[in-house]
Amino acid sequence: MSNTQVVLARRPKGRPLPEDFEVVQTEVPEPGEGEALMQNLFVSLDAGFRNWMDEGAGDEVLPAMEIGAPVMGLVAGKVLKSNRDDMQEGQVLVGRLAWEAYSIATAADLMVPIEDKFDQPANLFLGLLGDTGLSAYFGLTRVAHLQPGETVVISAAGGAVGNAAGQIAKAMGAGKVVGFAGSADKCRWLEDEVGYDATINYREDNVDEALASVCPDGIDVYFDNVGGDLLEPVLNHINYQARIPFCGAVADYADEDGTGPKNLFRLVANCARLEGFMTHYWVEDYEAARDVLVGWLNEGKLKNFEASYDGVENCGVAFSDLFAGKNFGKAIVKV
């Protein structure tokens, strides 16, 4: 039986391109002792994995990806064969595997079962009920401590975490939710479909003037998925004791030089807080967080927005589209 894989063909220079990846065919592997064979169902496309595509980019989270090896990513899959006591045939799990149709899951792959009690499709556990939604939820609850009536601004608002954060902020009672996006179409979508109160096209608008207009009472929470230059005008409008959950830096993932704000003293002057975080800090609270998110889904306060691609062979194109800002919502590949 053949296994379709997408491998790293070359190290991306800046923004990833489809040509940085190659589709290959191999034999489906047999699981060894302490391993399980997974049939992958969905692949999540997450901008943060660009970090580990550079030479020598390994860290305590992941090793650097190797040229010619399958690209690593988050996957939802079903167990076909298991030599692991903690994984049963037919079980559906989410974990860190690769862009391929079939994967071997070892103990190092952090496979987490999908809880049956939620009665939700597997793809949601890569999106609203996975790292995407949990990043938005914990960023707003544990880092920002968002209070009803506060003004929230969110960068990369049309992306996976951004659209979830906007909806969650509204569900939590935010007074105003404002999003940054890079096109007029995406701004309209955020306001008409996702429920943002206002949007700013950072490519076309004078961001500083736009923030003064749509946030006349200042910014209490800035949910930052981007980093880079966009933080500078935001800092000009933060309120006393504003909070900035720093979830990602997509502006810097593909930029070797990187840029940042020149007005960081605004944090000091306003006794504000900028805090980086990752969802695994609160892994013991995942189930409770999902209880809340599923409740909001059932009440209609949350909607699942996906940019869906068919076929694992399209992972490279989907990943490139992510950095080009083409996705409206969570980018996901149905294997």
What does this structure look like?
- Helix content is 24%, strand content 27%.
- It has helices at 131-143, 160-171, 184-194, 207-214, 231-235, 250-253, 265-269, 286-299, 315-323; strands at residues 2-8, 21-27, 36-44, 72-82, 92-98, 102-105, 112-113, 151-154, 176-181, 198-201, 219-223, 238-246, 273-276, 306-310, 330-334.
- Strands 3, 4, 5, 6, 7, 14 and 15 form a seven-stranded mixed β-sheet that branches. Strands 10-9-8-11-12-13 form a six-stranded parallel β-sheet, with helices on both faces.
- Strand 9 (176-181), helix 3 (184-194) and strand 10 (198-201) form a beta-alpha-beta unit.
| Structural shape | globular
Q: How many distinct beta strands? A: 15
Q: What's the total helix number?
A: 9
| Class from helix and strand fractions | alpha/beta
User: What is the second-level CATH architecture of the largest domain?
Assistant: Alpha-Beta Complex
Text of the CATH class of the largest domain: Alpha Beta
Unreliable residue stretches: none
CATH topology of the largest domain: Quinone Oxidoreductase, Chain A, domain 1
Order of helices and strands: EEEEEEEHEHEHEHEHEHHEHEHE
Label this structure with key terms.
Quinone Oxidoreductase, Chain A, domain 1; Rossmann fold; six-stranded parallel β-sheet; 9 helices
Question: Summarize this, please?
Answer:
This protein has 335 residues and is of the alpha/beta class. Helices cover 24% and strands 27% of the residues.
